[in-house]
Amino acid sequence: MRPRIQQEDEKVRLTAYGHIIHRYLRYVLIRCTGYTNDKSQVQRMAVYALVTACLLFDKLTRLGQLGSLVEMMVKIVGEDPTPDLSAIATPDRANGIEPVFVLDERMCEVAGAINVLDQFSRELLVLHHIEGLELATLADAHASSVDDIRQALAEAENQFIELLHGLSSWSGGIKPDVRSLLMTLAGCMDEAWANELGVYALRYAVAWNE
After folding, report:
1. Is the pTM of this model over 0.70?
2. Same domain, 175 and 204
3. Which domain holds residue 64?
4. I need a labelling partner for 83 at 20 to 30 A (CA). Which of 104, 132, 151, 158 fits?
C-alpha cells in the first residue's frame, strides 16, 4: 500500500493538471487554427502541448510562464513535418478532414486575427474574454499590477480590432465587440470533442507519473 502522503501528492498533482488543461484547452485549440483545422492534426498538437505543460509546470519559476510554455509546444508540434500519429481515432468526412471549428468567412477572419497577435496579447484575450479570468487573477499569474494588465488587455483589444478593420468585410463604422466575437469563435468549436480531448490529455499526464 502506498503511503498516505504519496496519495495526497498525487491528488494535488491531479488537481493542478486539471486546472491547467481547463484553463488552456480552448486557447490551444484556437491557437491550432493558425496551422490547421483538421481534428486528426489538432488533437495531436493539443495533447502534446497540454501534457507537456502539465509535466513541466513545476519547473516554472512563476505561473505567468505557463502561457509561453504552451505557446512554444503548439509552435513546435504545429511546425513538425513528421506524419500524423493521432492518439484518438476520429471519423473521416467525405473529404478526409473533420474540422475542429465550423467557421464562416467572418469567423475565419477572427481566428486569423487572434493568431496574428503576440502570445501575451492573445493569452490575455482568450483567458479573459473566453475563459472568464478576472484581471486580478491574470495580474497575479504574471506578477503584474491590475492596472498594468488592464492596460495590456486594452492594447491587445485595440490591436485585434485594427487587424479586423484591415479586412474589407470589417470596414464599416461599427466597432467590433471583442468579447462577443471571441465567444462566437469559441462557440464554433466541437465542444464534446474538445471535452473528450481534455480528459484524454489529463489521463495521459497523470499516467506519466505512475
Report:
1. yes
2. no
3. 1-101+189-210
4. 104
